[in-house]
Amino acid sequence: AHVKVLRSLGPEGRTLPLQGHVGFDSLPDQLVNKCVNLGFDMNILCVGETGIGKSTLMDCLFKANFDDTVHSHKSPGVEISEHIYNLKEGNVKLRLAIVDSVGYGDQINKENSFKPLVDFIDEQFENYLQEELKIKRDLVTFHDSRVHVCLYFLVPTGHSIRSLDLVTMKALDKKCNIIPIIAKSDTVSKSELDTFKANIMEELRDNDVEIYTFPTDDETVAEVNKDMNEMMPFAVVGSREDVKVGETTVRGREYPWGVVEIENEQHCDFVKLREMLIRTNMEDLREVTHRKHYELYRRGKLKQMGITDDGAHPVSLQETYEQKRAEHLEELQRIENEMRQNFVNKVREKDLELKRNEKELAAKYEGLRKENNEEKKRLDEERKKLDDDLAALKKKREDLERANAEHANGQNTK
Ligand code: GTP
Which of 19, 104, 253, 379 lies 20 to 30 angstroms, CA to CA, from 292? Predict the structure, then answer.
């Protein structure tokens, strides 16, 4: 295309410096204002067995009193319960969804414990994809329900990771950002905790379980994130009680031998977790979810629909649609033929059966007829015999009567 040159500087041209402030440095502010007005979505999936302290930790993280239903250990399967809270700090609105895996790890057969979790995550991806595929899509105000982070609560055994945890994390690691944490870490001693942490990381590596690592490409947070990556998994303590320590009141757990302060970095890694999760890397978690995990889901889904754009045969949507349609029609035709064949076979079978029955009936009828004839013959003979007997008796009676009459006559003539 020809670009119309309105003014050319030329070799002797004069370059004019900008005479004043243009103002595009306010672009970041515009962006911030827009985002702040819309608010943010953050969805946290808490996975861990019943009573491991999931709700307590969530309360501590957001300094709130969220849902506090105590769940039983007897649930027949794993259920997903989701609670949404609209939080506000300063003028920033956060729509927080806490998703709890109720009954996780309580069943005797734990084989499918992770299935409801995977299904839930996929369902949220699907909702987003459906919105994206709409003609009138509205992704700006769409409430993003995709799981941005999965806090995986490890049982503080002090030894190593359990196989159920490994299997579940492996099933989830391509679908969401997993941050493993050691729950109730006040029950493990300091020296045990270090070996426990090392064992956990080693086992995760050995089993190729990919966990979320804090990003180190942004230099403002690179250093702190690098340090924190080395401290994973965070050992946390949760509490809903405020305890008096000296003159101050702190969130903590009081024991006969002392107080565990949850916000004291000497006592546990709670503050580190809060810093990393909420203050430093919340946006990265949201971004990685969209860029990596959702993208993988979307790619798989579109491939399933037959849409590809890689390799030597770029296929347009129209072609794909037509091909799919042809395949579908072929399949329908095949099903129809199969059904027709089935029907013909059935009819034939029924026909044969009917003929067989007819034959059987005819044979039965013939037998009955024969029997009947024989019976009739026998009865006829019997009747003839009876008739003969009757005639003989009649004759005998007549003879007798005649003899009697003759006898009477003889008497009278005397
Ligand atoms: P469900 O919602 O019923 O599945 O349980 P949950 O995992 O949400 O556990 P919850 O937060 O209700 O805590 C269960 C119990 O563990 C409560 O009595 C808590 O006080 C206790 N608890 C929570 N966090 C800790 C902790 O860090 N250390 C210790 N020792 N106990 C804790």
Answer: 104
